[in-house]
Hints:
The chain is α+β, with helices and mostly antiparallel strands. 45% of the residues lie in helices and 17% in strands. It folds into two domains: 21-172, Jelly Rolls (Sandwich); 201-292, Arc Repressor Mutant, subunit A (Orthogonal Bundle). The protein contains eleven helices and nine strands. The chain has a six-stranded antiparallel beta sheet. Residues 191-290 form the HTH araC/xylS-type domain.
Amino acid sequence: MDINFKKPAVQKTRIPASRIFAIRKLSENHFDPTWHAHSEYQLFLVLEGSGTKFIGNTMKSFGKGDLTFIGPNIPHLWRSEDYYFDPQSDKRSKGLVIYLNGSALEKFIEKEEFNQLKILLGKVRHGMEIHGETATETIDLMHGLLHLHGMESVIQLLKILGVLAKSNEYNLLHYGEILDEPKEVETNRINIVYNYAFTNFKKKITLDEVATLLSMTSTSFSRYFTAKTSKTFSYFIAELRISHACKLLSNSENMSVSQICYDSGFNTLSNFNKQFKTFVGVTPKEYRQKFLTL
């Protein structure tokens, strides 16, 4: 399955200069699978769909109800499950996204009354995954914002930011802080690697074949990938395989653990069990049992 990356990886502003924010409802065959970045803050809610999201150097599965808040210039993508790329499929990826003008927000946070907002925006530069009652309240406010205009919409937006600023129901997603806009040539290179890895992770992938895609030696590519993602390429492939295995263990009761092992790209069951426990903390059988008892 190949995807043509026609959109620029470093994207221009999505908010008119005359506005503080923009809110959009998305309904597509799949979310944008292109590794990209932009200057706005982004609050993104998944209404329908599932897959894998990359926020900076963190990879996690997403599903309905996933709520993520990221700061400016953090490279990211939400890649839907493979069946969303099938033109014959009636599956749709649906989302609700708010883009916030950073320059406008920065004018607020210098005032004493907005000190909590200033702290929140500092956290968001690492990316935040929001959960619990905070997510429930925020989601309700986001749906309400769709139908408001003018000053009422700004008041509703401030309510959303207020809920998030007061909460500790979140996980930070990106290790480190990104201040500068990434260069387009770099994000395009990572897109090539990510697309190839997503398409081929079920089979053996060598450093040489991936390095060739970027006209690099395997040694140069290994250093480059680690510098850009804070992880080795072999670790990244293991993440992809374990993430795929987790989805199958929780959703495909008819597949045995052995079948899932080989479908996820592992050559031996013993290695699969070892790697799975290293990444997840439990064995594949124990992980599956958790879902069977829900």
